[in-house]
UniProtKB/TrEMBL annotation:
This is FAM3C protein. Belongs to the FAM3 family. GO terms for cellular component: extracellular region. Keywords: Disulfide bond, Lectin, Secreted, Signal. GO terms for molecular function: carbohydrate binding. It is found in: Secreted. Residues 11-98 form the ILEI/PANDER domain. It comes from the Eukaryota. Its main location: secreted.
Length: 107
């Protein structure tokens, strides 16, 4: 889903959206949280449909530009570590839109 070969991995938070019923890859994006703006990430998170599996991984720095709104939206996907994510922390996460519990797939 995400690799340098496909040229879809970048500095910041890398994301992949997967249809929770069919397993079909819906989208991949990355959001630069060092030199970029958090607004595109927030808008992206707000458009995710219920039943979508959300995979996220940081590369280089994924936390500097994160604000409370972005962290809350990611927590709503099942993350418990996003509130503590700091400068250049490594983080991988698999959650879902509409999840009722916290995801066990996070490190």
């Amino acid at each position: 889903l995400m690799s340098g070969v496909k040229n879809n991995v970048g500095r910041g938070i890398n994301t992949a959206l997967v249809n929770g019923k069919t397993g079909e890859l819906l989208d991949t994006k990355f959001f630069d949280m060092w030199g970029g703006d958090v607004a595109p990430l927030i808008e992206f998170l707000k458009t995710i449909q219920d039943g979508t599996i959300v995979l996220m991984a940081t590369y280089d720095d994924g936390a500097t530009k994160l604000n409370e709104e972005a962290r809350r939206l990611i927590a709503e996907l099942g993350s418990t570590s996003i509130t503590n994510l700091g400068f250049r922390d490594n983080w991988v996460f698999c959650g879902g839109k509409g999840i009722k519990t916290k995801s066990p797939f996070e490190q």
